[in-house]
Design a protein that fits this description.
single chain, alpha+beta, 6-stranded mixed beta sheet
Length: 295
């Protein structure tokens, strides 16, 4: 197994030639993607407890989701005790540098993070909406709903940034001045219900799956302290090496076919060259705005 040096840390990598996606994308290509893009990934991971969806044999093999620290974690990888939803604490990874990022992605993982940081558990510094289309609705319908939400959030002084989910839909994220996860959840739910009332043929805010066909479900639940969202720029365990990739509002507004926002690993170098880090404001505390009604 090859041994590499990453910023002075020696890492043993494994099975680099192994195909981990049906299109033949190898584990080595996956690791190269993460190692090459630490500059945009690390601000999204830093100070946030990490949950992992592991798919070592590809998305068609066994998938398992874990918040616990994996066996064999090197002592130099940061681990924090974080609150558990049922009480007490548990140990979770916190990825803060490139060696740790390369080490954890050698496990072949999706990266998932909450809306709060380890120093302030339960205090959200971002708001999230997960727009999930129920067939035959597609991401094109999500884009229409995203435009409505963007304007409505702006009316409350909040700036929304969009990314693909890396699956079928869109995520909207807003930087916040820290506020309780309960308050963020309440606001997000109220806005989802308002959208459903304004666009009843297009939007559903209820969890019931029987209500979703042909509509966009606005999932507001990921603002709860116990929930996580696919981290920006993570690869997803899907039929192809899809990326949860930031997109411009021009791309959202002009999306006429789902394939226009079908963003894959191979697309990312050109996108980053063209746009840079579209989500950089999320990590800039100067961009944070108060949640309406909070102090």
């Amino acid at each position: 197994m090859p041994v590499v040096s990453v910023e002075g840390r020696r890492l043993t990598l494994s099975n680099l030639e192994k195909a981990v996606y049906p299109d033949g994308t190898t584990k080595g290509e996956v690791l190269h993607y993460y190692a090459s893009n630490g500059a945009v990934l690390l601000p999204e991971l830093r100070d946030r407890p990490l949950s992992l969806l592991r798919y070592p044999d590809g998305p068609e093999g066994e998938l398992f989701f874990t918040k616990r620290v994996p066996p064999g974690t090197p002592e130099w990888v940061t681990v924090h005790e974080v609150p558990r939803s049922g009480g007490g604490t548990m140990r979770q990874l916190v990825i803060g540098d490139l060696p740790a990022l390369v080490w954890v992605t050698n496990l072949v993982v999706e990266l998932h993070t909450p809306q709060w940081r380890v120093g302030t558990p339960g205090l959200a510094d971002r708001l999230v909406f997960d727009l999930d289309p129920g067939e035959p609705a597609t991401i094109v319908d999500c884009c229409e709903v995203a435009g409505w939400l963007r304007e409505r959030l702006a009316a409350d002084g909040l700036t929304a940034y969009a990314k693909t989910s890396g699956s079928k839909g869109l995520h909207l994220l807003c930087p916040l001045r820290p506020v309780s996860s309960e308050a963020a959840s309440g606001y997000a739910k109220a806005l989802a219900l308002e959208a459903a009332a304004a666009m009843p043929r297009r939007v559903v805010a209820a969890m019931a799956r029987r209500l979703r066909p042909g509509k966009v479900f606005i999932d507001h639940s990921q603002n709860a302290a116990r929930k996580t969202t696919a981290t920006p720029y993570t690869l997803r365990a899907r039929h192809a090496p899809m990326v949860s990739a930031p997109v411009t509002w021009d791309e959202v507004e002009n999306c006429a076919e789902p394939r226009q926002l079908d963003i894959r690993l191979g697309d990312m170098p050109a996108r980053l060259d063209a746009h840079g880090d579209l989500l950089a404001p999320l990590a800039d505390p100067r961009q944070a705005r108060p949640l309406p009604g909070s102090r």
